Amino acid sequence: MGHQFRVSAKSYFPYFSFERASEDSGNTEIFIQDSLNTRMIHTMAPLLNFTYDIREPLDRQWGVPGEGDNFTGIVGELQHQQADFSLDLTVTPQRAAVVQYCRVYIDESVIIMSSKPRPLPEYLSLIRPFTGELWLILLVSIFVWGATLWLLQKVWSWASGGRSFTLSSALFYSWGIILEDPPADPPNNITAQILVGWWLVFCLVMTSAYRSSLISHLVVQGKSPLINSVNDLVRREGWRWGTPRMTGALLLYLNSSPDRAIQKMYQGMQADSLVKGMEMVLEGGYSFIFSKYYSRTMVATSYTDKLGYTPIHISATEYPLFAGNAWAFRKGAPFLRRLDLAIQRLLEAGLITFWMDGVIFTRVRDTRRQQREEEAGKNQDNGNNVIYQEDDGQVVLGLHHLQVTFYLLMLGYGLGLLALLLEYLFYTLY
């Protein structure tokens, strides 16, 4: 019937977007831009015969519980009848107690943005074929086998008067076999020979596995693992993460989640601006947690080159914030049912998903066009448009592949020289 509604909203592309007429805290006048909710309300208004006045809340917040169960931001305006409904508000149990929601029309998920896997240092190529746990077990096995051989030879020598080993000889014996250079005089008793035989089989399997894996690591450089979930994030040693100032549904989600990994993530979370956060992501060792749709748009416009390559990796796992997003209404609003039915029809027609993809595509297209215009006449790419290419040709091993072998050779020379000096001092003084 031509009624004018008071609508409260915050700018949060691609859900709803606007520019403030003034940065004064008391001025709520805005200039609406293209977004999902803009298309929704523009479509519904003439069909249901209403007009609207969209304003930003005075405190510019979504709404979290305050003193005396009074909410801030958009939720507070609806709670105290200062607005009729809001555009795009995440459904949470706390908010649902003071406002009414229409049906959820889209989910609001957060994702983790990190730098794509980077090449591991070449000097680690000799140790990468085995995990640290396997290297430790192998080292322990060498000492345990050598000590066992020494004890068996001691017992055999005591019982039959046969040849015995010193402990150092037994340890070098086990080390020589695994390096495929066993001593020429194996033990002559059956007990030790059985022990040596099984050790030879063990060493054959270990050296074959190591050799084949080493060749692969020398030819194809290893890369750091992906971060696809919160578990991957919190388990990475020395890794940091952050998000913009935690408010609204994200804060409630992190506070109330029973997941231990999310609790650990929340405890280590640091507040960083969007620009600073993405700079640290590109530097490495840092992940940025943000909303899925905005992140997709940002990566496509600012961190993707003209060939479609981006150094940013978006996690495969998404974390929905509660039930999703919907329009929120002041309690008892008689028009809730009509607007709810209209949103249901938009969903059934597939327009919500279609519009969301269209809004993102339009923003990416316009932003990239503006970037091309600004870069017209330049013959070199800037920081966000670097062309990354990889050589798919034949790999020829070079010095950078085998640098660790020369480091080991220098280390061996150094240790040999040090041992010579110590021996000379020992025999000179004593």
UniProtKB/TrEMBL annotation:
<protein>
    <submittedName>
        <fullName>Glutamate receptor-like 42</fullName>
    </submittedName>
</protein>
<keyword id="KW-0813">Transport</keyword>
<keyword id="KW-0325">Glycoprotein</keyword>
<dbReference type="GO" id="GO:0015276">
    <property type="term" value="F:ligand-gated monoatomic ion channel activity"/>
</dbReference>
<dbReference type="InterPro" id="IPR001320">
    <property type="entry name" value="Iontro_rcpt_C"/>
</dbReference>
<keyword id="KW-0675">Receptor</keyword>
<feature type="transmembrane region" description="Helical">
    <location>
        <begin position="190"/>
        <end position="210"/>
    </location>
</feature>
<keyword id="KW-0812">Transmembrane</keyword>
<dbReference type="InterPro" id="IPR019594">
    <property type="entry name" value="Glu/Gly-bd"/>
</dbReference>
<keyword id="KW-1003">Cell membrane</keyword>
<keyword id="KW-0472">Membrane</keyword>
<dbReference type="GO" id="GO:0050906">
    <property type="term" value="P:detection of stimulus involved in sensory perception"/>
</dbReference>
<keyword id="KW-1071">Ligand-gated ion channel</keyword>
<comment type="similarity">
    <text>Belongs to the glutamate-gated ion channel (TC 1.A.10.1) family.</text>
</comment>
<feature type="transmembrane region" description="Helical">
    <location>
        <begin position="406"/>
        <end position="427"/>
    </location>
</feature>
<keyword id="KW-1133">Transmembrane helix</keyword>
<feature type="domain" description="Ionotropic glutamate receptor L-glutamate and glycine-binding">
    <location>
        <begin position="14"/>
        <end position="80"/>
    </location>
</feature>
<dbReference type="Pfam" id="PF00060">
    <property type="entry name" value="Lig_chan"/>
</dbReference>
<keyword id="KW-0407">Ion channel</keyword>
<keyword id="KW-0406">Ion transport</keyword>
<dbReference type="Pfam" id="PF10613">
    <property type="entry name" value="Lig_chan-Glu_bd"/>
</dbReference>
<feature type="transmembrane region" description="Helical">
    <location>
        <begin position="134"/>
        <end position="152"/>
    </location>
</feature>
<dbReference type="GO" id="GO:0005886">
    <property type="term" value="C:plasma membrane"/>
</dbReference>
<dbReference type="InterPro" id="IPR052192">
    <property type="entry name" value="Insect_Ionotropic_Sensory_Rcpt"/>
</dbReference>
